[in-house]
Amino acid sequence: FPEHGGLQPRKFHDGLLKAALARGVTVVCDCPVEELTRSGTGFVARTPAGDIRAQRAIMATNGYTRGRHGWLRRRIFPLPSYLIATEPLDADRIAALAPGRRMMVETRARHSYFRVSPDGSRIVFGGRAAITQISPQRAAARLHETMCGIWPSLRDVRLTHCWSGNTGFSFNHMPHVGSHNGVFHAIGFSGSGVVMAPYLGMKVAYQLLGDGRGQTAYSGTHLATRPYHFGGSPWFLHPGEFWYRHVVDRREDAEAQG
To answer: pLDDT by residue (tens digit) across 140-163?
Structure first.
């Protein structure tokens, strides 16, 4: 893709935060909303530090939707994304691995994604180490094995970093913008949150203000639940993990080998 690109999510987040602070937005860290209830014409957000009263509210929690937000919790489930970084490699080795320095994504069900680090010294590799939470050590080992299946020459390369974060999936893998019982939401980005969250965050803010610029096709998507998802821990991911690892991955490996 000639126009394919990438960004550093942390720097992007920092830029958005600085822009918000410059415009007078109050940002409160380490203060989770444990409950959001109606109060007259507005809402009360209950936090460990005290209550916050507001006339309007937006839920933008995606893969971190917790607590008593039951309606959304039954419609969104978290899937962890794991990444690793190799030790620094020499320039010739990097050039042999990725001569075009493009962003790379697999079309296989395991959906690995990888790139050369911005400074050109490492391989950064991400993917489905698991669809449930596992330790960084196990995730790193699994991703290293997957990476070496693509680049066997990296078998002797050490890893220096492993990290993860939650994505938030809807059951139809489509984002949704709308409201429920007066609470607005932009949620369910299903693995595309770096791109979709800022765009749909703008749309839901316009909707909250009653501005026509909030119109979007993603207000017409169906944010459905399933009878087996009760809003707690998504137990159904465990059999899904077995299916992908022992059936889908093996079938795709066999097809790749001819």
So the answer is: 999 999 999 999 999 999 999 999
**Mean pLDDT, consecutive 10-residue segments, the chain of 258 residues?**
79 96 95 91 94 95 85 91 97 94 83 92 92 92 94 96 94 94 95 94 97 95 86 72 65 72
Domain 80-169: CATH superfamily is D-Amino Acid Oxidase, subunit A, domain 2 (3.30.9.10)
d(CA 191, CA 189): 6
Instruction: Tell me the one-letter amino acid at 225.
Output: T
Contacts of 139 (CB under 8 A, 6+ apart): 82, 84, 129, 130, 162, 164
pLDDT at 148: 95
**Cβ atoms of residues 179 and 173 within 8 Å:** no
Name the 3-class secondary structure at 166.
strand
Tell me how far the alpha carbon of residue 27 is from its chain's centroid: 21
Domain ranges of the chain: 80-169
Backbone angles phi, psi at 30, to 5 degrees: 50, 45
Greatest pairwise CA separation for the chain in angstroms: 66
